[in-house]
């Protein structure tokens, strides 16, 4: 059964710590995306990757980093430089016609 | 700019029709999409329309596209409580996979 797996579903981070959110896909899609969603707001693009070993900054990349070493995986690291990281994070993939989304990770800074 | 705009809220009675509106900016967009997001979940693709069409119907869903006004709408017939969710429209950028999302419309269905 093809799909996107985001883990964990809930994540708590202490201030000043880095944390990595996982996104794995078995859809064989080339492009992968990370979005951030805040309450009552739309989706904001953090980073995206169209092929392995290549990625571009989105609209709000500051305080985040990514890697794309394998086609199946696009992990997002939220660094301590991100001043307001509490949000819902969504990973998506595409192969030419629309996106497929994961179920999201809710990150809370405590 | 790249803004895709939607109204924030819509409230309808169960059994009535819902119409969610969206305006987009890029006249070269090839596809336009509607996604549904239930609480705490990811986005689910509902339907999409190719830019050379002006209407698409899929069971209870009807999509209307007015390219001249860059206006897209989603009509849900016989709205049910299970339709309560946030609905996002999105436009594709020409010759890329990248989508630009609207702010989302929260649909609330009351009995």
- Indicate the low-confidence ranges of chain A by residue numbers: none
Mean pLDDT of chain A: 93
What string gives the helices and strands of chain A in order?
Answer: EEEEEEEEEEE
Characterize the main sheet of chain A. 7 strands, mixed
Q: Helical segment tally of chain A?
A: 0
Average pLDDT of chain B: 91
> Main sheet of chain B?
6 strands, mixed
Question: Which percent bin holds the helix content of chain B?
Answer: under 10%
Total strand count of chain B, please? 11
| Proportion of residues in extended strands of chain B | over 45%
- What proportion of the residues of chain A is helical, as a percent range? under 10%
Structure description:
The complex is a heterodimer of chains A (110) and B (111). By secondary structure, chain A is an all-beta fold. Chain A contains no helices and eleven strands. Chain A has strands at 4-7, 10-13, 19-25, 31-37, 43-51, 54-57, 64-66, 76-78, 87-94, 99-101, 105-109. In chain A, strands 2, 4, 5, 6, 9, 10 and 11 form a seven-stranded mixed β-sheet that branches. In chain A, strands 1-3-8-7 form a four-stranded antiparallel β-sheet, with no helix packed on it. In chain A, strand 5 and strand 6 form a beta hairpin. The model of chain A has no long low-confidence stretch (mean pLDDT 93). Chain B is mostly beta strands and 111 residues long. Helix content of chain B is 0%, strand content 55%. Chain B has no helices and eleven strands. In chain B, the strands form two sheets. In chain B, strands 2, 4, 5, 9, 10 and 11 form a six-stranded mixed β-sheet that branches. A five-stranded antiparallel β-sheet of chain B has the order 1-3-8-7-6, with no helix packed on it.
